[in-house]
Design a protein that fits this description.
Blueprint (H helix, E strand, L loop, with lengths): L20 H24 L31 E5 L6 H15 L4 E6 L14 E2 L5 H17 L10 E6 L8 H6 L1 H9 L11 E7 L7 H5 L3 E4 L5 H12 L4 H18 L4 E5 L12 E4 L14 H5 L8
Parallel strand pairs: 1-5, 1-6, 2-3, 2-4, 4-5
Antiparallel strand pairs: 6-7, 7-8
């Protein structure tokens, strides 16, 4: 290339006219930065083997951290991960951060083991079976009916969260999780329990097995949080069901690349998929990442002083 930037030997000039040294240096630095960015993008997509390289690659740097408080109060959230992969840990982190900005009036835990959330949910709000679930839903219905008739000053607020922790899998209530009519109704019609933003139900379903959750619930989930999965088929089902942006071999390959890059970037990092996002033209429109800090804040999400004073957790086996 000549000093005036004419095209030489088929190379594209960095600049086309004589410019001050500081301007030229800035332009060269900018182009070097862009080249470096392109190389990182190419590296991120190196796992996409056997595909046409002319098809646009995936820019992993556009995938942002997930804003927990952006979720609607009536969201249905699936948290799917293998054993000891941080399902409970990240769910507590989500609850804590959400509660700080948009407080819950109550948080209920349904767990066959009664483990996890020990410093956030007292025993009075913990249940081994789903028997109490109907009563909770009935209460929300009563609150809605009351608020529809009441004056604003007399309205009652009952925005709650329900956490169903590992009700599927080995030793779990697989059939109940898949067939329980209340769970299916919550997924499909739970948003209709609200009136005036005062009787929402946010549902978290934690599971080691994605296919253990009923198809009806899966299709009505608003968010899917997942990370490294030990079962190849589980990973495949989630990617094909929620992550694929384009059909065809290349589109699927891109989706696998995005999934693997996010979950392998950091230990215990989750990919977050907003299944209801509109006008999706690129992965960053509906795909995010989230990793919880090693130490949680252990915020008390629910319960009064008596609940915590006499908080003796039951042992389930």
């Amino acid at each position: 290339m000549s000093s005036h930037g004419q095209k030489t030997d088929g190379l594209q000039p960095v600049y086309s006219t004589v410019a001050p040294v500081h301007t030229t240096r800035a332009m060269i630095d900018a182009q070097l930065e862009e080249i470096d960015r392109e190389e990182r993008v190419e590296k991120d997509n190196s796992k996409l083997k056997g595909v046409n390289s002319k098809i646009t690659t995936v820019d992993m740097e556009s995938i942002k951290e997930f804003d927990i408080t952006s979720m609607e109060r009536n969201s249905v959230i699936l948290v799917v991960a293998s054993r000891r992969s941080g399902k409970t840990h990240i769910t507590q982190h989500i609850l804590e951060q959400y509660h700080k900005k948009k407080p819950f009036d109550a948080v209920f835990l349904f767990s066959k083991t009664n483990s996890g959330f020990e410093k956030s949910i007292p025993q009075t709000y913990r249940f081994k079976t789903l028997d109490m679930l109907q009563n909770i839903v009935d209460t929300q219905i009563k609150v809605k009916k009351h608020n529809k008739k009441a004056k604003k000053k007399d309205m009652v607020t009952s925005n709650i969260a329900i956490v169903l922790d590992d009700y599927v899998g080995s030793g779990g209530l697989t059939a109940e999780m898949r067939k329980n009519p209340i769970l299916n109704k919550l997924a499909v019609n739970g948003r209709h329990l609200d009136f005036g933003g005062r009787s929402n139900v946010m549902v978290f379903m934690l599971s080691q097995i994605y296919t253990g959750i009923s198809p009806q619930i899966r299709l009505n989930a608003d968010y899917v949080f997942t990370t490294k999965l030990s079962a190849k088929k589980e990973r495949e089902n989630i990617i094909q069901g929620f992550l694929s942006l384009e059909s065809g071999r290349q589109g699927l390959a891109n989706s696998y690349g995005v999934f693997d890059n996010i979950v392998n970037e950091k230990d215990f990092q989750f990919i977050v998929i907003n299944t209801t996002a509109q006008n999706k033209t690129k992965f960053s429109d509906y795909t995010f990442k989230l990793v919880a800090p090693p130490k949680l804040e252990d915020i008390r999400l629910v319960g009064d002083s008596d609940d915590w004073k006499h908080n003796n957790l039951d042992i389930y086996f």
